């Protein structure tokens, strides 16, 4: 049986049931590509991926398994999606662990890392991908509760997980964070979300220069997605909203990205292929040119 931990503290967003939206996303996000060719880049590694039940996190987790890694998934609410990703990892011949809970709770983050290390004996890669957003037309509509909740999930969790994982990461371990194009371009309806993504970029750069990590050869990088088709946006705006119907059309490529199109970047940053890269952000956004 997969290992599972539970902490149910996060409120539903935008009035939609997240599990219902995930189940009815049309078309379904594409987590894999037939053209991907694995090369054992993460053979024998153990990876922990937050937000691993759907979207970018799920695509990265599956790609890690294809590259030879065992993968522990952390998710908040969608049991069926998380188990489907875990089943796919096992189908690929790798081990999977599944943890359900709130990454905004430091105790939960500590317990997840401990369980992974107890089960597998090591942890080599940490991917901080979990995130939430709640659009608001005005800053006057952003409540203190929403502000705190968004920061807890999106950036506090990264502090919690890095603190828990760092004692276990080996020489040459890797950390990959998910920031966003909104950190560079802003988003008028996502003030708190964009602020957390800017914080993630600064956190990534600052952590990469920390003396302890540098001495141990632990590299820290990030991926900045543009509009990627995942359950997050239908859940945030409503599946029938104009925002969702036109999602991604503002990019030079005129479409949203699919989760599988980001997975190779996570593999690259987690593997020795990026051995001379740290403190950097890879922008995967359909051609939008941003500074940074």
From TrEMBL:
Pfam families in the record: adh_short_C2 (PF13561)
Domain of life: Bacteria
Keyword tags: Oxidoreductase
Family: Belongs to the short-chain dehydrogenases/reductases (SDR) family.
Annotated protein name in UniProt: SDR family oxidoreductase
Provenance organism: Gordonibacter faecis
């Amino acid at each position: 049986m997969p290992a599972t931990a539970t902490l149910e503290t996060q409120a539903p967003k935008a009035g939609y049931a997240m599990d219902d939206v995930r189940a009815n996303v049309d078309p379904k996000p594409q987590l894999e590509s037939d053209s991907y060719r694995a090369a054992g880049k993460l053979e024998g590694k153990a990876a922990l991926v937050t937000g691993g039940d759907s979207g970018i996190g799920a695509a990265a987790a599956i790609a890690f398994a294809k590259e030879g890694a065992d993968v522990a998934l952390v998710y908040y609410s969608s049991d069926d999606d998380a188990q489907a990703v875990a089943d796919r990892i096992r189908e690929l011949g790798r081990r999977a662990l599944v943890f359900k809970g709130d990454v905004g709770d430091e105790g939960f983050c500590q317990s997840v890392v401990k369980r992974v290390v107890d089960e597998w004996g090591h942890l080599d890669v940490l991917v901080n991908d979990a995130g939430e957003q709640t659009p608001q037309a005005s800053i006057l509509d952003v409540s203190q509760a929403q502000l705190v909740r968004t920061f807890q999930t999106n950036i506090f969790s990264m502090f919690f997980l890095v603190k828990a994982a760092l004692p276990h990461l080996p020489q040459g371990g890797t950390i990959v964070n998910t920031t966003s194009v909104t950190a560079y371009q802003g988003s008028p309806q996502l003030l708190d979300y964009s602020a957390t993504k800017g914080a993630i970029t600064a956190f990534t750069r600052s952590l990469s220069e920390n003396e302890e990590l540098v001495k141990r050869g632990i590299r820290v990088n990030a991926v900045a997605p543009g509009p990627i088709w995942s359950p997050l946006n239908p859940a945030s705006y409503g599946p029938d909203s104009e925002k969702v119907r036109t999602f991604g059309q503002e990019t030079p490529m005129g479409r949203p990205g699919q989760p599988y199109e980001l997975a190779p970047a996570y593999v690259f940053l987690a593997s020795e292929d990026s051995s001379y890269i740290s403190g950097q952000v890879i922008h995967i956004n359909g051609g939008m040119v941003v500074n940074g």
